[in-house]
Amino acid sequence: MRKIYHRIIQISGNVITVEAANVANNELAEVKSERGTSLAQVIRLDKSRVYLQVFAGSRGISTDSEVRFLGHPMRVSGSEALLGRIFTGNGSPRDNGPALDENMMEIGGPSVNPANRIIPNKMVHTGIPMIDIFNTLVESQKLPIFSVAGEPYNQLLARIAMQAEVDIIVLGGMGLKYDDYLFFKETLDEHGALPRTVMFIHTASDPIVECIQVPDMSLAVAEYFATELNKRVLVLLTDMTNFADALKEISITMEQIPSNRGYPGDLYSQLAVRYEKAVDFAKAGSITVLAVTTMPGDDVTHPIPDNTGYITEGQFYLRNGHIEPFGSLSRLKQNVNKDTREDHRALMDNMIRLYSEYREVLEKQSMGFRMSEWDKKLLKYGGQFEKGMMDLSVNIPLFQALDRGWSILADCFEPQEVGIKTDLVKKFWPSK
């Protein structure tokens, strides 16, 4: 039986303070006021003082409101009934479906013991050539998508959710515009991906504390499907900048000493504890994490992308509606693309090399230099590469994408000009 308190000693913004004993950090409580019952979470302990963030805000709460501690942190159901469902950041149904209370699991647990992990060795096919060929996504990898506001990063995540060859998709949205939430819902439903998807959605109008819960909710559900049902799970998170900003807002409310640009000093740890949930279990399924990080001012040295880069295994840069070939990196791609098809690595390396030369030719052209015959070939190649490979509307399987790469080379160059070994050229060069 949990004790009930009737004296709130301080109300600061959406944070209330009570004096209580035997309370744990992150524990939930119910706060009864004239507006009804609101959920709150312990965010700080200072001797006997307990600070709680009220999910729905402190409006209507008075110093004599009732606070009842529940004795457990936030929990989520571990059940196959989650599939096809949409929930809020606190686990309540957003889709008007029934609440789920079967096999309730605590969220925010520790990451997996390294002894239970295996070396990532399986490719996740997405149907997007700039990922599958040039920056292959590997099971259990953790990768951010660095972008800026206005880029189609949510459209990219939806494409991946529809096409990725995995068993389960868990989508966590933080600070989404309502239009973006409807976009995800309608797109996944129209393309038949919703039945294998679980969505936790925090919109910009929802309580700020729920934003912080979304990654933990998503990853707890992913762990259930991976460990209990041996599923390959892909967790898609957008936007981790909103998550970090929510941490910042709460730390300011708590009058904590700020670090770089006002973010809390434990920002690195807060990000790492979520990203490190990516794992390939030795005797179960796997969890792969792709998370959008919008860079304020397109500044990669901003604390959020800067800290993220130390944690993750590469990054995708989304610029001008394309996954940028230069700067994007999958550090684990060599674990898998050596086993896909014998021409994969040679084609990948040389197509990027030629595209780099094309970018140099564009600079020469802009300065008025005369174009040589080789420069003209590179200009033709660059246009075809951007249209046939980089355009995010391109949706083809890996082997078909590799064949398209050979076709682009054959249309622009002679076999001896591409720098690929003769035996591969003889085997894969398209016959005219």
Describe this structure in words.
The protein is of the alpha/beta class and 432 residues long. It has 3 domains: 4-73, Beta Barrel (Thrombin, subunit H), CATH 2.40.10.170; 76-335, Rossmann fold (3-Layer(aba) Sandwich); 344-428, no CATH class. The chain is 33% helix and 24% strand. It has 11 helices and 19 strands. The chain has helices at 129-132, 153-163, 178-190, 208-228, 240-253, 267-275, 303-311, 344-366, 373-390, 398-412, 422-428, and strands at 4-5, 8-12, 15-19, 27-33, 36-46, 49-54, 66-73, 75-77, 86-87, 104-106, 142-147, 168-176, 197-203, 232-238, 279-280, 286-294, 314-319, 322-323, 329-330. Strands 9, 11, 12, 13, 14, 15, 16, 17, 18 and 19 form a 10-stranded mixed β-sheet that branches. Strand 5 and strand 6 (49-54) form a beta hairpin.
Describe this protein with a few key phrases.
elongated, Rossmann fold, 24% strand, 432 residues, 11 helices, seven-stranded antiparallel beta sheet, single chain, 19 strands, 3 domains, alpha/beta, ten-stranded mixed beta sheet, Thrombin, subunit H
Instruction: Using the coordinates above, name the CATH class of the largest domain.
Output: Alpha Beta
Low-confidence stretches: none
Structural class: alpha/beta
Number of domains: 3
How many strands? 19
Whole-number radius of gyration? 25 Å
Proportion in β-strands: 15-25%
* Name of the CATH architecture of the largest domain: 3-Layer(aba) Sandwich
Spatial shape: elongated
Could you name the CATH topology of the largest domain? Rossmann fold
* Total number of helices: 11
Order of helices and strands: EEEEEEEEEEHEHEHEHEHHEEHEEEHHHH
Helix fraction bin: 25-40%
Mean pLDDT: 92
The largest β sheet comes out as: 10 strands, mixed
Distance between the termini: 80 Å
